[in-house]
Amino acid sequence: MATTIEAPRSPYSRAPRSRGINWEKWGWMYMRASGLVLVVLIFGHLIVNLVLGDGIKAIDFAFVGGKWSNPFWQVWDCLMLWLAMIHGANGMRTLVNDYASHRTTRGILKGALLFSVIVLITLGTLVIFTFDPCPAGAPADLLASFCPAS
Q1: Which of 10-19's residues contact partners 24+ apart within 8 Å by CB, and which partners?
Q2: Measured distance CA(127)–CA(123) in Å, rounded
Q3: Average pLDDT, the chain
Q4: pTM (predicted TM-score)
Q5: Which of 48, 117, 123, 136 could bond 89 through an S-S bridge, CB–CB 3.0 to 4.6 Å?
């Protein structure tokens, strides 16, 4: 008695290219490097925000305003935002490539992913660098302690 097993469905793959940039290799390397940098950035963020101060109860508008009035913390938080968003998007791109079987579906999902990452990075960067903790015309009792009285 002979039994035959049907051939499994072939996973998505592109024809191998002999020249050009190997984007999968660079994406893999980016994931490793950004993961290491993100560990440092995130633990630094958590230590400064939660351990060194008064804990979670001290985090309010004035705390964020005080941090973001320093260019060091603006760059720190912006770097953390950019690396985390691109790291997560690259991981999602890998999942889309692995599980989306139709070329059109893959294209739509990757386009939506690219669009959402660009929008979130742009908005996050604008918030970090244009944040004004001392808005003009605000009542003095609502301003942070480091703001000059109007």
Answers
A1: 11/98, 12/97, 12/98, 12/100, 12/101, 12/106
A2: 6
A3: 85
A4: 0.75
A5: 117
